[in-house]
Amino acid sequence: MNAMAGNYTTEDGRKIGGVMMEMRNITLRFGGVEAIKDISFDILEGEIRAIIGPNGAGKSSMLNVISGFYHPQEGEVWFHGAKRPSMKPYQVAQQGIARTFQNIALFDGMSVLDNIMTGRLTHMKTGLLSQALWRGAAEREEVANREFVEKIIDFLEIQHIRKTPVGRLPYGLKKRVELARALAAEPKLLLLDEPMAGMNVEEKEDMSRYILDTNDEFGTTIALIEHDMGVVMDLSDRVVVMDYGRKIGDGTPDDVRNNQDVIDAYLGVSHD
Amino acid sequence: MPDTVLFAAEVTLNGLMAGVLYSLVALGFVLIFKASGIFNYAQGVMALFAALTLVGIMEGQVPFSHLINAIFGTNIHHFGWHVPAVLAIVLTVGLMVVFAWGVNHFLMRHLVNQEPIILFMATIGLAFFLEGVGDLMWGSDIKTLDIGLPQGINETIDRVTFDAFGYGLFIDNLDIVATIIAVILVVALVLFSQYTKQGRALRAVADDHQAALSVGISLNYIWVLVWSIAGFVALVAGIMWGAKSGVQFSLSLIALKALPVLMLGGFTSIPGAIIGGLIIGVGEKLFEFFIGPLVGGATENWFAYVLALLFLVFRPQGLFGEKIIERV
Fold it and tell me: Could you say which of A93, A256, B56, B202 would form a disulfide bridge with B216 (CB–CB 3.0 to 4.6 Å)?
C-alpha cells in the first residue's frame, strides 16, 4: 500500500482516489514576515488530511490560502488537475470548497436553520426576479434545499435547536452549526480550522465521529487543522507537519510520529 | 364631543401621515446601515435626485442642457415629448440601479475595511456630488411632480366625520396614498429579506462579512443590491415629498429629519424606522398644537431633535436597536 500515490483502499474500506488539490511551492508573506515558506503538498480525493504544527506555524494561513482569503506571493494552487487563478473567497466557495473558522464565524442574528440555509446559496440558481415573485422555480428550489438542510440537521443531531438564534447557543453547539452550514454546501473539499478547539473530551468524541461519518457517508474530502495529537492521529489518513512556516513532515500518522524533526518541533531539542 | 379632542384627533392623524414620510426616508438609511455598517448621509439627496430624474424624464427635459448650451452655444432644453409616469418610474429605477453600481464600483469597493467615520465622510462627499450632478443635469428650479396621485381633502372622511361629530376631519388624499404605499413597501421588504435567497444573503452579509464570503456570497453583488433597494426607497420617498411640496433642493434636507427618527427607532431596525417616524410625526404635531401657543410656536423645527437628544441620554440604542452588551 503506497499512500502517497493515491488510488488505494484504506483498512476500514474507504476508497481514496487521485489528487484533488495540490499546493505547489506556496510562499506567503505579510510584509517582512514569511508565514509560509515554499510549501508543497497534495490532498487526495476522499481522504482526511491533517495539517498540524505548533502555534504560529502557519497552519491557518495555509487554510486561508486554500479558501482564497489569502493570496500567496509565490506558488500555485492546483484543483482537479487545473491551475487555479487568483480567486476571491466566494468564488472558491462556489467551486465546492467549504470551510469553518477557528473563531466561529456564524450569523448570530439568524436562526440555526437560516444559518444552514445560507450554506445552500451556491446551489440556488433562480434569479432575483423569480425570487422576488416567489413563484414556481424559486419556491420549488427553496423546498428542495430545505429538505437537504433537514437531512444535515438530522445527521448532526441538532433538531432541537433548529429555530434558536445562533447567538444564544453554547460554544460546542455553535461549532456544530458551523459544520452543518459547511456540509449544507455539499462540498467536494471541506476545510476545518481547529474543529475541536476549546471542547471537552465528550464534545471532541462527538465531533470526531461527525467528521469520520461525513467522510464515510458523503465521501467528502477533508483537510483539517487540529492541536489534539490523539485526535489527529486517530482521524487522519495523512498528516502535514508545519513549523515556523516550513514543512517538516508529511506522511501517514505513523511516519510522522517517528519523524525526528517533528519530535524536535513539539518537544524541543536539547542543546548539550 | 369637545372641539379640542377633535382637533387633537385631526392633528394626530395628520401627524401619522407626515410620520410615514419620515419613516420612508429613515428606511433607506436603515437598509444600508444594516447591510454594510455605512451611515449613508446621501440618502436624502438620493431621494431628491430620484425625484428630479423622474420629473426630468416625464417632461422630456434634455439632461445637462445648461452645460450643453453653454459649451456649444445651442438653445436646447426639451425633447418635446412626454413620457408616461409608469415608464418614467421604470426608467428612473433603472438609473438608480446604475447609480448603485457606480457607488459601489467607484467608491465603496475601495473603502472596504475602513473606519466607519471614513465611510461616513465618503457619503457626505457623495451627497454633495449628487446634489451638484442633479443641479447640472436637470436645473435648479422648483418643479411640480404630478404622476396622477390623488391630492386634496378626502371628501368621504370629511363628510362621514362631519355627520358623526359635527366636525369634518381634514385628511389629504396624498397622505393616505403615501401611507398605503409605505405599508406595501415595508411588507414587501420584510418578505423579501426573510424568504428569498437574496434576502438571506443580505442578512448574512449584514451579520458577518467573512462568514458570508465563506458560503459563496459576493459582497459586491449584495452591496449593489442594497444600494439599489435604498435607491428605490429613495425614489418612493422622493415621489411622495415631491408630490406634496414640489421637487426642490430643500428636499435633501428632509434627510436631517430622518436622523432623530433613527435615534428613536434604532439604526438597525426596520420596524424601528417606521415607528420612530410615526412618533416624531405625531409628536411634533401634537406638541405644536398643545405647547406651541405657550412658547410662541415654531416648535416643529426643533421638537424632533430634542426628543432624539433625550433618547440619546436615556436609551442610546433606540427603541428597537440591538442592545450593546460588552462581555468582559
Answer: A93
pTM as predicted: 0.83
In what helix (H) or strand (E) does residue B15 lie, and over which residues does it extend?
Answer: helix B3-36
Helix (H, G, I), strand (E, B) or coil at A220: coil
Facing residues of B172 across strands? B153
CA B215 to chain centre: 32
For residue A26, what are the β-bridge partners?
A39
**Are both A210 and A82 inside the same structural domain?**
yes
The whole-angstrom distance between A137's CA and the closest CA on chain B is 12
- Looking at the domain B3-314, which fold is it? ABC transporter involved in vitamin B12 uptake, BtuC (1.10.3470)
Which pLDDT tens digit goes with each residue over B241-272?
888 888 888 877 777 788 899 888 888 888 88
pLDDT band at B325; cut points 50, 70, 90: low
Same domain, A59 and A160: no
Q: Is A164 on the interface with B (CB under 8 A)?
A: no
Question: Using an 8 Å Cβ cutoff, are A207 and A183 in contact?
Answer: no
Are A85 and A113 contained in the same domain? no
Residues A79 and A191 in one domain: yes
What ipTM goes with this model?
0.86
- Domain housing A60: 1-96+187-272
Domain count, chain A: 2
Query: Which pairs count as long-range contacts for B116-124, CB under 8 Å and 24+ apart, including other chains?
Result: B116/B37, B116/B38, B116/B39, B119/B36, B119/B37, B119/B38, B119/B39, B120/B38, B120/B39, B120/B41, B123/B38, B123/B39, B123/B40, B123/B41, B123/B42, B124/B41, B124/B42
Q: Which residue of B has its CA nearest to A96?
A: B216
What integer is the mean pLDDT of B184-190?
Answer: 87
Per-domain residue ranges of chain B: 3-314
Same domain for A83 and A203, yes or no, is: yes
Residue B164, CB half-sphere, CA atoms under 13 Å: how many? 9
Per-residue pLDDT reduced to its tens digit, B79-109 = 888 889 899 999 999 999 999 999 999 998 8
Q: Which residues contact A120 (CB under 8 A, 6 or more apart)?
A: A145, A148, A149, A184, A185
Choose among A91, A98, A121: nearest Cβ to B197. Answer: A121
Contacts with B216 from chain A: Cβ below 8 Å: 90-91, 93-94, 121-122, 185
Q: Is residue A215 part of a domain?
A: yes
Sign of CA dihedral A243, A247, A249, A253: positive
Residue A221 pLDDT class (50, 70, 90 cuts): very high
pLDDT at A1: 42
pLDDT class for A262, splitting at 50, 70, 90? confident
